[in-house]
Task: structure prediction
Amino acid sequence: MSEPFNSVESAAILMMSLGEQHAAQILRLMEPKEVQRIGTAMAQLDNINKDQVTKVLEGFLDDAQDETGLTTDSDRYIRSMLTHALGPDKANSVIERILMGGDTTGLDTLKWMEPRAVADIIRFEHIQVQAIILSYLDADQAASVLALLGEKERLEIIIRISNLKTVQPSALEELNFIIENQVKTGKTTKTTSLGGTKTAANILNAIDSSIESVLFEQLSGVDEALSSEIQELMFVFDNLVNLDDRSIQSLLREVSSEELIIALKGADEDVQEKIFSNMSKRAAELLRDDLEAKGPVRLSEVEVAQKAILMVARRMAESGEIDLGGGGGDQMV
Result:
């Protein structure tokens, strides 16, 4: 790798430099998707020389030295850092485990499982329980689980997710009991915000396109207004044209060239020009040449690549790195 490392690759190099024991302790504090992304990057690292490792470590030390909060008020720093990185909802559960010694709840353990394992666990649960659990998972994992459930159940689950707003503590306790046969969460006295049309839109953004089209056809027949509301909130690949230049540039740093080429094969000309205009002249010329040389690509491959890039965009939006803007007015997805 001769090009500058992105943030995930740098984190992977850092983890491998720390040694197994120290790296394992850090990874235990991360969210499932973060561990998966860093693990994938670690597996793909090849021919990293000493100078590259040194540069990554120096960058980490520079960042660490700037964070004076670690020595003056570590609790406040950790809360602020996690809330900024993960958002208030996700950060709360992580903060509880780090600062309050809380255990991982049954619902949290589902985030570490393969979609098929989750589907097997919830397959025979009440449809409302399934909707709450899918609302609790990350959108891409929830989409994979939903795809493994029956066609009839999918429609009902999406409707229930869309109509879901909050969940009482007693309901969460019951769900944890179902999953791990004992109640492990009783500390909170607040209702938990889960579900809603935005959550449904995020899940449908990540699901296979063939399943998505069937679900919308069915949903339109049951509740046309709800179908329209969800579609308005969905952020599709063509919506990238509405991103500001800084957000596009940040996104491009996190996307592989091969994935971008395949995704652009099925993109509108406006989206392609938006991408080209946010690259150096030389890089844009190379990308245009690669697009022409690529030849025909199956639509299914284009859709997979586009959805993968959209998942990166949504992750970056959730962490505050970029602003997705459109695709639902002032909504963030």
In short: The chain is about 70% helix and 0% strand.
